[in-house]
Design the sequence.
């Protein structure tokens, strides 16, 4: 138990990869996994809960719960996480059309043709599945602990690499959005997203709820488009390029600078109480 307490991130990573991959690897090999397939994303959240209990006991679990329930943030940040992905996808679509693509082949059908009710329904489902399922783990457990050791940019890049590799079995799973996507494209894409998620995280006092909404919106609005069957990388590359432009703008404007005090230490008091501990960029 002492070793688990001293190495919470290592404990988390073993569980975070091990539990979902017990489902994903057989699924990639064509073995039926039944109801575990749609529930598998939540296994990484289970990994975070177990790692919190094993490494920090009830205090770490309470910290995780506080981050999950933290909803107070300015309306601007709700707009960023919910509307921003839709605007970004429309921008990507516009650039692809200017490069010779067809609007009908490029724009996400749900965004262009879906009703508000349908969009809200998809957003709710995405929040309750991939959104909370993943963000309890990546932003709720892993990122705060990385920020205690690293500056925000290196922490984001490292977490992005791990987050990307975590999806590895899905690259060989027929029927998944990531099926047959090049690994380099996946890693560059998710690493860029990791920086943007950290930007939201440090400006919303470490809210897992806002991160989950951001995650859900990026999935619903197809911010990371799959590679088409014909192998044309125009759309994914345009999306990737513009995503890194956003990262450059965030970093250039100091979006991760001065993160000290914006989120509390793991198990520590709230930012209002003067706790800090994170390093600036």
Sequence:
């Amino acid at each position: 138990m002492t070793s688990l307490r001293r190495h919470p991130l290592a404990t988390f990573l073993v569980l975070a990869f091990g539990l979902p991959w017990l489902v994903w690897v057989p699924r990639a090999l064509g073995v039926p996994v039944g109801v575990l397939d749609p529930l598998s994303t939540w296994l990484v959240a289970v990994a975070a809960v177990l790692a919190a209990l094993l490494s920090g006991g009830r205090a770490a679990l309470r910290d995780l719960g506080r981050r999950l329930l933290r909803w107070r943030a300015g309306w601007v940040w709700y707009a960023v996480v919910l509307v921003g992905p839709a605007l970004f996808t429309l921008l990507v679509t516009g650039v692809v059309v200017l490069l010779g693509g067809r609007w009908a082949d490029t724009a996400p059908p749900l965004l262009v043709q879906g009703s508000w009710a349908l969009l809200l329904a998809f957003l709710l489902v995405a929040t309750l599945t991939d959104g909370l399922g993943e963000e309890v783990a990546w932003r709720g457990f892993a990122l705060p602990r990385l920020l205690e050791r690293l500056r925000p940019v290196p922490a984001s890049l490292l977490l992005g690499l791990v987050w990307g590799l975590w999806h590895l079995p899905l690259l060989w799973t027929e029927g998944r959005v990531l099926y047959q996507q090049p690994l380099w494209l996946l890693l560059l894409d998710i690493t860029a997203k990791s920086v943007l998620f950290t930007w939201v995280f440090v400006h919303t006092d470490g809210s897992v709820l806002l991160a989950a909404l951001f995650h859900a919106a990026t999935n619903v609005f197809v911010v990371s488009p799959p590679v088409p069957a014909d192998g044309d990388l125009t759309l994914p590359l345009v999306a990737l390029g513009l995503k890194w432009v956003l990262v450059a703008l965030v970093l250039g404007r100091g979006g991760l600078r001065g993160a000290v005090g914006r989120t509390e230490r793991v198990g520590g008091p709230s930012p209002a109480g003067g706790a800090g501990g994170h390093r600036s960029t």
Remarks:
- The chain has one domain: 2-273.
- The first helix runs from residue 2 to 6.
- Residues 2-273 form one domain.
- Confidence is low (pLDDT under 50) at residues 268-280.
